[in-house]
Amino acid sequence: MNILSVIEKKKKKQELSTEEINFFVNGYTEGVIADYQISALLMAILLNGMSDRETYDMTMAMLHSGDVVDMSALGGVVCDKHSTGGIGDSTTLALAPILACCGVYVAKMSGRGLGFTGGTIDKLESIPDFDTALSEEEFFRTVKKVGCAVIGQTANLAPADKKLYALRDVTGTVDSIPLICGSIMSKKLASGSDTILLDVKYGSGAFMPTKESALELARKMVDIGTRAGKNIGALITDMEQPLSDHVGNSLEVIGIIEVLCGKRNRLYGEIKEVAVRLLQLSGKYDAHSAEEAFCDVVESGKALHKLAEMVTAQHGDASYILHPEKFPLGKKVEVVSDADGFVDKIRADDIGRAVTCLGGGRMKKEDKIDFSVGAVMNVELGSKVKRGDVLCTVYHNGKGLDEAVNLLKNAIHVGDKSPAPHKIAFAYVDKNGVELY
Ligand code: URA
């Protein structure tokens, strides 16, 4: 077998065999096939697609390129959720303790932010001394004792994806559904959970621009997970505006604490939707008992205390969870409306870019993050505003302030008419099919 014939075959829109797929994934991971040849193959896949069978085979080859975590020693249901990325998406910080309080384990490996999207690991590291690099042994011990733990991805989890993703990033081949499926699902399946909820986002702050493309991606990922023997479902959710009204690292932790202390906003609505679906997928709850359990652990304050327990177990200072006013924040500047009307468009990606300009995100992997900067939104889609009303408050330390304020001003558009209401979720997909909301 040689790589040129594999490229030629995909160029002619022919299906690759399992052997050909294993050959290119393993050859590239081991460094025996050159970047320029895999670049050509990736572009052929982007243009000509892959069948479900090819996508599954590629995912399996990527999954087996590194370690596959075995969680069976925990002796219980292990749940995971994965968001395809967005702005103000801090749901993991609440879901891990909520689900742990409901009697399922959460042993989560999360990523860092890059570009305009934030990452769970950075948000957690804004809590002083929080350790996101526990050894495997301590990670398992913490999950067993507390019920949940969140760490960064270990080095040898799906190494094929690390190499392929880096190449896609510089060859214009990120936005291919089979390639995204292989990338996300190889990592999810390698991290060992048996019950998985995917949160596939669409809109201005997401990878998938439309509901339809998000639904197609979700169906394919659910199909791969089901074939791999997992209990898996996917929610298609709205990213036409930031999910949390707090955007930025410490600010998003504060936003989560507010939800766990009783705030009932869109972020709360999405956390509830994901938790209730995951609890049902776990097989331990039906729709009614899942909702009851969720409300009990959030309203009683058990979930907030479980978050503090997880922070302590991961060597962080849990006093910040119980006293969020301790988080140091930058200086405040308000962005105000220059018209009367309704907020009819919010460019979530530009809100993320504004926070990155302030130093709250990374342009390059090695950039250091300023946890204390960000923006707190005063409005959401449909809010009625008057000229001079505050649209959002910026927290800054001087860096990038003018550019961030400009981006925010343009990102929040005020028009004459109120837009159609935006539901949190558009659809749910599992092995039984699609349920529209
Ligand atoms: N997230 C991933 O991990 N991979 C992709 O290809 C896209 C989003």
TrEMBL record:
InterPro entries in the cross-refs: Glycosyl_Trfase_fam3 (IPR000312), Glycosyl_Trfase_fam3_N_dom (IPR017459), Glycosyl_Trfase_fam3_N_dom_sf (IPR036320), Nuc_phospho_transferase (IPR035902), PYNP-like_C_sf (IPR036566), PYNP_C (IPR013102), Pyrmidine_PPas_bac/euk (IPR018090), Pyrmidine_PPase_CS (IPR017872)
Reactions performed catalytically: thymidine + phosphate = 2-deoxy-alpha-D-ribose 1-phosphate + thymine
Stated name of the protein: thymidine phosphorylase
Source species, domain of life: Bacteria
Alphabetically ordered keywords of this record: Glycosyltransferase, Transferase
Protein family membership: Belongs to the thymidine/pyrimidine-nucleoside phosphorylase family.
GO molecular function annotation: 1,4-alpha-oligoglucan phosphorylase activity; thymidine phosphorylase activity
Quaternary structure note: Homodimer.
Signal peptide: none
Domain Pyrimidine nucleoside phosphorylase C-terminal as annotated: residue spans: 342-415
Matching PROSITE patterns: THYMID_PHOSPHORYLASE (PS00647)
EC top class, as a word: transferase
Listed EC numbers: 2.4.2.4
Natural source organism: Candidatus Fimimonas merdipullorum
GO biological process terms, semicolon-separated: pyrimidine nucleobase metabolic process; pyrimidine nucleoside metabolic process
